[in-house]
Amino acid sequence: MADRNGAGEGAVDVDEVTRAVLTASRVLVAVSARSLAAVEDRVTLPQFRMLMVLSSRGATKLVHLAELLGVAPSTAMRMVDRLIAAGLADRRVNPDNRRETLLQLTDDGRRIVTDVTARRRQEIAAIVERLTPQRRAALVAALTAFSEASGEPPAPAVDEASGPHPLGWAQ
After folding, report:
1. Is the pTM of this model over 0.90?
2. Which residue, 65, 86, 157, 158, is most buried by CB atoms nearer than 10 A?
3. In this structure, are residues 51 and 89 in contact, taking their beta carbons and an 8 Å threshold?
4. For 162, how many CA atoms within 13 A lie in the half-sphere containing its CB?
5. Quick check: helix, strand or coil at residue 94?
6. In 3D, which of 74, 97, 78 has the Cα closest to residue 89?
């Protein structure tokens, strides 16, 4: 017999999985907030999110950046202007189309992303170390399936030759 979410008998329903993911997301939000504490005088959480997108995507057009962030281009432009004023991002002419401007991180912006991500990675690793090997394996399987369902590319391993992307994202 199927439940209201279409799962067969003995299967975990969508609501139960959603609750578990929401609980885990609270942990991850807390870890993220603590990792940002050292730079909160320089960037807000939405600004850091923009730095993360620029870090993972490289030089990006404003319209595409706004789409990736789910904000209006005018909102993205105000955020970019603040990051440029803080020396964390800059604009340059697109070499492929001189009428377009590309946004990118400065070295200082890249450093902030790297530092915050390193703190986040350390805190997550400390939590994961408290899990048994069997639970770690189950967590990897579950989170991989979750990420694949969302379309997020897998993070590279720490020991990959080129080193991990500061956010753990594939380039």
Report:
1. no
2. 65
3. yes
4. 9
5. strand
6. 78
Alpha carbon distance 53, 68 (integer Å): 8
DSSP 41: T
- Which CA distances in Å does 59 have to 13, 65, 95, 112, 146? 41, 10, 11, 17, 28
Residue 70 backbone zone (phi > 0: left; psi -120 to 50: alpha; other: beta): left
**Beta carbons of 164 and 156 less than 8 angstroms apart:** yes
Rounded Cα–Cα distance for residues 106 and 71 (Å): 22
Q: Give, for all 171 residues of the chain, the pLDDT tens digit.
A: 445 555 555 678 899 999 999 999 999 999 998 999 988 888 988 999 999 999 988 999 999 999 999 999 999 999 999 999 999 999 998 888 888 889 999 999 999 999 999 999 999 999 999 999 999 999 999 999 998 998 877 766 665 434 444 444 443
Distance CA 25, CA 143 (A): 12
Structure tokens at 25: 């997301």
How far, in Å, CA of 119 to CA of 32, rounded? 9
Q: Quick check: 120 and 133 in contact, CB under 8 A?
A: no
